[in-house]
Amino acid sequence: MNLKPGWLLLLTISAGVWSVPIERNGGNQEPKEEVPEESMDTGLYYDRYLREVIEVLETDPHFREKLQTANTEDIKNGRLSKELDLVSHHVRTRLDELKRQEVSRLRMLLKAKLDSTNTQSLQMDHASLLKQFEHLDPHNQNTFEAKDLELLISTATKDLENYDAERHEEFKRYEMLKEHERREYLKGLDQEKREKEEKRMQELKDKHRQHPKVNAPGSVAQLREVWEETDGLDPQEFNPKTFFKLHDTNEDGVLDEQELEALFTKELEKVYDPKNEEDDMMEMEEERLRMREHVMKNVDTNKDRLVSLEEFLKSTEKKEFNNPKEWETLDTKPMYTEEELQRFEAELRDKEEELKRRAETLRQEQELLKERGKALEAQRREYQQAVLEMSQRQKEQPAADGQPPAGPNGELQFQAQTQKPEDEAKAPAEHEPEVQQNNLPAEPPQNLPIHT
Fold it and tell me: Membrane topology per the record (predicted)?
């Protein structure tokens, strides 16, 4: 993606690639090879959304023209955002789609966060939860409006202004952690081994400090070195304007932060080598950041985080350009005080105690679950035994209790039984008429006369 200076003005997003050394052999100058563009991550959690919005807006000729003529204030105060109403329909449609995708992504992040904290919400109010994200309008989740562009620019500007400070603080904590681990390691050794290890560590520090002189970044000596060793040109023919154009790799008329940082590689190689045990590559990146900030402070007069050709040429006229102070590398002064280290170690101890308490709580809960599991298993076995015993009693129950015997599947079984002779004699015949007492016939004779 090729971004214009208007966007780089505030967002500090590189349009091209890291500056690549240009190989030249004396007078035989070879043309620069085409290097595929490479996205430089801003470090913002909404970096992709930011880039895609800019890429879509730059496809509109009207907006691109306005962007090229806009200044810092036009962008900061929201005037540029109002031009969104004049872009073409397909651009607005694409922006709407990008916003819906970003809202969907944020919803997934929120759900993952809630799931991780075991917070179950059947009726999640996304509009309220989305308010914590400042780079878009949470009340309108379907269309991209001027307010969205204004919020995106202002939030990115604010976040990027704090980005370097956060990187410095992160590096300081990294250095304090290294020192803490070193001290803890030495505590675990006996006196003889400790003295030997302390001597070895001091030798590595001394070896790291024994490096060639580092030129001040942005000075004539530093730029001439790049001109000669990287560009392969005669140092006596150094020309600031030509130098600027050579290292404006994306040819946008300015040197952005990545293009500037690429200029310091030769100086950093004097101090840091990834093959050496004593050289820390994290420290090298911190050194690169310090060099870039030094140049920006002295060259970037309008504080737009870019160096224009005019600003660059004016900086070469300053006294500091030809007679700079000697550059002090990180190894010349500590990054933290002993008091800061003690507070950091106390913080580590508190966190360690908290982790131990949580681990103990989890262990107790695990033991409790094991005991409950054992009790449930014993109860299950008791139930199984009771069921077996009941089934056995049902099988062995005699038929004399009035219940017919049961079959193999629990069904009732009926069997025909034969009566005994004496029982048959006692039982009256089922179809025989009853005998009248005194042997009288049951009915009067048929032919007897009837007496009146």
Answer: Peripheral membrane protein
